[in-house]
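User: New here, please read:
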Amino acid sequence: QVQLAESGGGLVQPGGSLRLSCVVSGSIFSLYVMGWYRQAPGKQRELVAGFSSGGITNYADSVKGRFTISRDNAKNTMYLQMNSLKPEDTAVYYCNVADLRGPSWGPGTQVTVSS
């Protein structure tokens, strides 16, 4: 079983930055994908950024050039650096890992971009 724990959310002004962290614990099959999703009020959950099983990164068009996904395998931690934040980035951000057993989700961390 995989456990995920996000941190780093908060309130930030437009144009500001935040870095989200996701600590991954438990066993993960060697073939897996992982990434960050977000869900704004009244909207469906969407992929923000992710790693393929081969380690290739992909980003939603709305965050390209502003967000960067990374990971530190030694620390079992994945990050999402978010720069030039906009009010439309306001959402609950979730960490996700999916292996042969299916997806696992963290509880989420709130990001609010407002002046």
Summary: The radius of gyration is 14 Å. The chain is about 0% helix and 55% strand. Residues 33 and 72 are 15 Å apart (CA to CA). The chain has a mean pLDDT of 94.
